[in-house]
Design goal:
Structural class: alpha+beta
Organism: Jejuia spongiicola
Number of helices: 14
Domain HhH-GPD: 35-186
Catalytic activity: Hydrolyzes free adenine bases from 7,8-dihydro-8-oxoguanine:adenine mismatched double-stranded DNA, leaving an apurinic site
Order of helices and strands: HHHHHHHHHHHHEEEEEHEEEEH
Protein name: Adenine DNA glycosylase
Keywords: 4Fe-4S, DNA damage, DNA repair, Glycosidase, Hydrolase, Iron, Iron-sulfur, Metal-binding
Radius of gyration: 24 Å
CATH superfamily of the largest domain: Hypothetical protein, domain 2
Length: 346
């Protein structure tokens, strides 16, 4: 089909030189694809290079401590990706003798690997004819063929997958998959694409009907939940503080944070001091409370917005085992905590 030929020809002339394009080793392809989920290349590239340097093989990653993996991942967000990455590496080493599955069906069985990642690995590493469909592909196909089906619906997922499967170059599936993803990332950008120089513009229905800005179409998600986080930053006279590991299945699982108090609304100095006097870390203790950030810090996650304040608690001694403030950067923490640590300059 002319669409397929144009896209692959464009790719051969315009593709970016990226390290994961210089190999067909499934470990490196898998690593790059997991990192690039929900992440742009310019942000993900340094993380990819750091992981390859520290964990050059799946055996090295499998033998790593989870804390070290999370620390290296720090700042990328969606930390379940890092936990799944580590879990899958251990599974491949212990159960599969360090050998990745060599087909789409078996790749799908790996934890953290969905249709897109399995298709990418299967086509790039093993030349299997299975089409990738990521955000870039959705955008290119929805615009070129003027498809209004919501991309975040089960109907849309099937429709776009079937269409991509029909378009794939069966002789060179790896090249086509990388070409259409690159085309969406570089040429058919989400905002302000330069359609006048696009090699697909003559056949692009959205361009010819002035609908580029309308597609792809997504069903609006529910309104983000608003939460009020108050972090207690203890500093004792012997320069110790407290970090706690987040347990359970919520956000930031297995990352570390300062003791947290979640409230139903924003807190003022006076009311919050009275509020925390009965806290188990402060009960019957003398302490000085200072609000670090006068303006609330808003941290936006996919389904919730965190309205955050950091409260500095100067206290003589801690009534639990703390850590030296000099060691605080050794722990994997959410980016909002990391940013505070950098700004506060312990």
């Amino acid at each position: 089909m002319i669409f397929t030929k144009i896209v692959t020809r464009w790719y051969s002339n315009n593709k970016r030189i990226l390290p994961w394009r210089q190999t067909k080793d499934p470990y490196y392809i898998w690593l790059s694809e997991i990192i690039l989920q929900q992440t742009q290349v310019k942000q993900g590239l340094p993380y990819y290079e750091a992981f390859v340097s520290k964990y050059p093989s799946v055996f090295d990653l499998a033998n790593a401590k989870e804390n070290d993996v999370l620390k290296l991942w720090q700042g990328l967000g969606y930390y379940s990706r890092a936990r799944n990455l580590h879990t899958t590496a251990k599974h491949i080493v212990s159960d599969l003798n360090g050998v990745f599955p060599n087909n789409y069906k078996d790749l799908l069985k790996l934890k953290g690997v969905g249709d897109y990642t399995a298709s990418a690995i299967a086509s790039i590493c093993f030349n299997e004819n299975t089409a990738v469909v990521d955000g870039n592909v959705y955008r290119v196909l929805s615009r070129y063929f003027e498809i209004d089906t919501p991309i975040n619906s089960s109907k849309g997922a099937k429709e776009f997958k079937d269409l991509a499967q029909k378009l794939i170059d069966k002789k060179k599936p790896a090249e086509f998959n990388q070409a259409i993803m690159e085309f969406g990332a570089v040429q058919c950008r989400p905002k302000n694409p330069d359609c006048n120089i696009c090699p697909l513009n003559s056949g692009c229905m959205a361009f010819n009907k002035n609908r580029i800005h309308e597609l792809p179409f997504k069903i609006k998600s529910a309104k983000a939940k608003k939460r009020h986080f108050n972090f207690l930053v203890f500093i004792s006279k012997d320069q110790k503080t407290i970090l706690e590991k987040r347990e359970g299945k919520g956000i930031w699982q297995n990352l570390y944070q300062f003791p947290l108090i979640e409230t139903t609304r924003e807190q003022s100095n006076g009311s919050f001091k009275n509020y925390i006097k009965s806290h188990h870390l402060l009960k019957n203790r003398s302490f000085e409370l200072v609000l670090y950030n006068k303006d609330v810090i808003i941290h936006k996650l996919s389904h919730q917005h965190l309205y955050t304040k950091f409260w500095i608690i100067n206290i003589d001694t801690l009534n639990v085992n703390g850590i030296l403030v000099d060691e605080i950067r050794d722990f994997p923490v959410p980016i909002i905590i990391s940013n505070f640590i950098d700004a506060f300059n312990f």
